[in-house]
Amino acid sequence: xxxxxxxxxxxxxxxxxxxxxxxxxxxxxxxxxxxxxxxxxxxxxxxxxxxxxxxxxxxxxxxxxxxxxxxxxxxxxxxxxxxxxxxxxxxxxxxxxxxxxxxxxxxxxxxxxxxxxxxxxxxxxxxxxxxxxxxxxxxxxxxxxxxxxxxxxxxxxxxxxxxxxxxxxxxxxxxxxxxxxxxxxxxxxxxxxxxxxxxxxxxxxxxxxxxxxxxxxxxxxxxxxxxxxxxxxxxxxxxxxxxxxxxxxxxxxxxxxxxxxxxxxxxxxxxxxxxxxxxxxxxxxxxxxxxxxxxxxxxxxxxxxxxxxxxxxxxxxxxxxxxxxxxxxxxxxxxxxxxxxxxxxxxxxxxxxxxxxxxxxxxxxxxxxxxxxxxxxxxxxxxxxxxxxxxxxxxxxxxxxxxx
Length: 404
What we know:
- There is one protein chain.
- Helix content is 36%, strand content 14%.
- The chain has 14 helices and 13 strands.
- The longest helix is centred in the last third of the chain and has 23 residues, at 274-296.
- The strands form two sheets. Strands 1, 2, 6, 7, 8, 9, 10, 11, 12 and 13 form a ten-stranded mixed beta sheet that branches.
- The chain has a single domain, classed as Alkaline Phosphatase, subunit A, CATH 3.40.720.
- α1 (2-15) crosses α9 (199-220), α8 packs antiparallel against α9 and α11 runs parallel beside α12.
- Residues 1-25, 176-182 and 227-239 have low confidence and may be disordered.
- It is globular, with a radius of gyration of 20 Å.
- The chain is of the alpha/beta class.
């Protein structure tokens, strides 16, 4: 424990983090528009292991591929899939038809398995040929460009840079809380790249970044974090940190004129000790969605939340109790306006012959198709706009309708 705490403290000192306002560690953006429905887009940075979150226990190959991670009881979903216990606070939403998932989904990104490229492609919403891969605007911004009459202050970004997802020609403004924090989102992503081939060091660094967010919440409230409290923060998945600050701010804006909110949650790269680290990030995700449901009140019935990640993880667990970068993944959807209570998608199977490159969950649907259905259902965008400019050349006709 002392070694890890020293690593965190040294990292925070080296990075120059006074941590006065931790939302700057990640990007968050808002856009006001003339609709009554609300859409929240969460980017889960680090590649969430969808096979652990929504477990295909009905597939005979699952337990053999994951002798450690498949152990234990999940929460019943539909007889084939179970839900990770860390998402137990959201299980009532499943039973109420307000929580659903799409399994075996991905962007067009294949084989290189770089967080940097995978996240850029996810937020750009394009294909992966040379022309489309070079796009520097994002699919949410292109969606806003299709809406006439937006004011210059209808899109907001929290942090030192805009989310790529909301970057582009549509009007956008930046908002940052007062801070002395020196670590930018670019710097965090650079750290992730540097340590990408060294999972143990990378896990320690990313845990230090996560801890700094909790310290920031305390210091922003005008108090110093003692060593004992730091230990508690490290072990408390539900501890209030940047994720709750962003969710609270999102709720505040969505209760007013804002109709679209987007932000990211980190910490999903689970190369080792996944059974210990994944519950923390899942707890944060559950906290965010639960807070939104409670804070929005009657507006929850007009709200949809979609959570997307850059790619999935390997079917087989590795020798350190974790999983490595894969292909097919999972998308989460929640909200009173969503058609929940089901796991969407065509299940490809986990037998070795059914896997992508004989190692990953085979993608059977494009995750962008579900995002397109969400925008179609919430905002009435035409298929021409969605397949023409928002997601160029995307054919989403076969995707199910996910909005009530």
